[in-house]
Design a protein that fits this description.
There is one protein chain. Helix content is 7%, strand content 43%. It has 174 residues and is mainly beta. The protein has two domains: 85 residues, RimM (Elongation Factor Tu (Ef-tu), domain 3); 61 residues, Roll (SH3 type barrels), CATH 2.30.30.240. The strands form two sheets. A six-stranded antiparallel β-barrel has the order 1-2-5-4-3-6. A six-stranded mixed sheet has the order 10-9-8-7-12-11, with no helix packed on it. The N terminus is likely disordered.
Length: 174
């Protein structure tokens, strides 16, 4: 699915935290919910590099609170240090379709949010995970937080880039 106009064309799947050891391994914070994303042979675009320059995942294993990853061609600690803090990206096509009844975060970032009576609240700038349900951070004339529940979010048109909400009492009051 194409991104909304003005949206970045790449999806963040992880962040390199820092080097691990002296042989080119790095610690990675995983942002992808797809358990197959960090398998041997997968490739990533490193933030700041051209899309054609990809990192090939050579080996990965679970570390304490992060993934430990070895990319092909990354041989020493000094090379690994250059990746610290940079995002690992993929194209929306590589992310694939969301499971039935769900959407990926990149599909709704930038979406215009309207109430059922047509009032424009702004656009989705962030999706916060709260544990109970995700919350849309919508920025317009003012910022509002919209819970992503069936009761509140009544319609999502991903092709048009719009979300319709039926605010519960008190949700939009200042």
């Amino acid at each position: 699915m194409p991104p909304f106009p003005g949206k970045p064309p790449l999806v963040i799947t992880g962040r390199v935290i820092k080097p691990y050891g002296v042989h080119g391994w790095v610690k990675v914070e995983q942002f992808s919910a797809n358990p197959l994303r960090f398998q041997t042979g997968n490739t990533f675009i490193l933030e700041g590099r051209e899309a054609g320059e990809r990192l090939l995942l050579e080996e990965a294993r679970q570390g304490p609170g992060c993934l430990l990853i070895k990319f092909r061609g990354l041989e020493g600690r000094e090379e690994a240090e250059k990746l610290a803090g940079r995002m690992l990206l993929v194209t929306p096509q590589e992310v694939g379709e969301a499971p039935p009844g769900e959407v990926w975060e990149h599909q709704i970032l930038g979406a215009k949010v309207h109430t059922r009576d047509g009032r424009c609240l702004g656009e989705v700038v962030e999706v916060m995970e709260t544990g109970a349900n995700d919350v849309l951070v919508v920025r317009g004339e003012r910022e509002c937080l919209i819970p992503m529940t069936r009761e509140v979010v009544t319609e999502m048109d991903l092709e048009e880039g719009t979300i319709t909400v039926d605010p519960i009492p008190g949700l939009l009051e200042e």
